Amino acid sequence: MNVHLASYLSGKTADDLAGSKREFLEIGRRSGNYPLATARRDGVDSEVSVWCSNDYLGMGQNRQAIAAMQAAIDTHGVGSGGSRNIGGTNHYHVLLENELADLHGKEAALLFTSGYTANEGSLSVLARMPEDTVVFSDAKNHASIIDGLRHSGAKKHIFRHNDVAHLEELIAAAPADCPKLIVVETVYSMSGNVAPLAEIADIADKYGATTFIDEVHAVGMYGPQGAGIAAREGIADRFTVVMGTLAKGYGTVGGYIAGPAALVDAVRTYSRSFVFTTSLPPAVAAGALASVQYLRSSDVERKSLSENARLLHSLLIAADIPFISTDSHIVAAFVGDDDMCKRASQLLFERHGIYVQSINAPSVPAGEEILRIAPSAVHDQNDVENFARALHGIWKELNIPTASARDWST
Ligand code: PMP
Fold first, then answer.
1. Is the pLDDT of residue 24 over 60?
2. Is 248 annotated as catalytic?
3. Ligand 1 and 189: CB distance under 6 A
4. Is the separation of the CB atoms in 407 and 335 below 8 Å?
5. pLDDT one-digit tens code per residue, 281-295
6. What class of enzyme is it (predicted)?
């Protein structure tokens, strides 16, 4: 056995291990009844309302996406049979790539088996094209971005989160003639903060930098046809490469990049996580394609998500619950203590049948623990009001500092 694992296990009693097993919560989404789900704990089923799913628009239960996936299973079976370059490219992969390129107004797109591998696999190539590229990366960028940049071996500067002045200071200090790449998310996964995209594009133009934006928490949800935040701001064409996932707004699985054909071809050729792995099952690509197409023409889900997020914001303000104020749908309610955060999550579940996962280190720095709340397009006004009421009760019961009591200067 691995020595580190052995020493970890030796520090645990059988009860500890049984306890952590007992803590395990299985959530089974029920078709047609979302956002309710069945939770199995200690072998007992109960009904819960889910408030931390990344299936923000309920597309995992969309009839058209389900029908498309089922039809593709009937014709193509459940697997792809190989990597994209050796027998694993199917009609649906190509159709989906064309659809995504068109959605983002880019020349080409490339599918990966997840958003993680899309970031890791493309940045490990793009950050070395050309070889002496210097990268400027936001401090709160996702692990998949960090890993891709690390694997590229490129020189990297980290700028303070969403701090364009710091970005400019760092980029101005780099040699004028070296190739530069700026990498940001548009909606940050944990805080819901939105990037100041227009200012970042201005800096990129001023210093001749290439740009890469991760729209994982935005595609499907924002902008005309769900093309994301850059499209919402009318500046999608100012960014070189856009990256997205099919696993959140689109309710399926997979990731992609879209950008200039030459860059996409370079990634297709050199990215190890694209080349050396089995491609997505054709049926997944077919379901994702139906989902992307559906959300290009339907605004109902986007509108509902934004109304629910707005209502939740106003109820949390009224309840004096501290949360990061953003104009996105992700609500990070600030607890700031590991045990209290877990306890709040547990009580919401036990008392109110509400499931919100507590977010602790290493996903956030210790002392910055949050309940990451994800309202969904398929919650209704009643769900939002019940949720806010329950959260308020737990906040009072656990004596978690309120927004007005908290000293925001520290
Ligand atoms: N980028 C960001 C910002 C993310 O939050 C995530 C996952 N939550 C990913 C990329 C990876 O996407 P996926 O879950 O599709 O692998």
1. no
2. yes
3. yes
4. no
5. 999 999 999 999 999
6. transferase
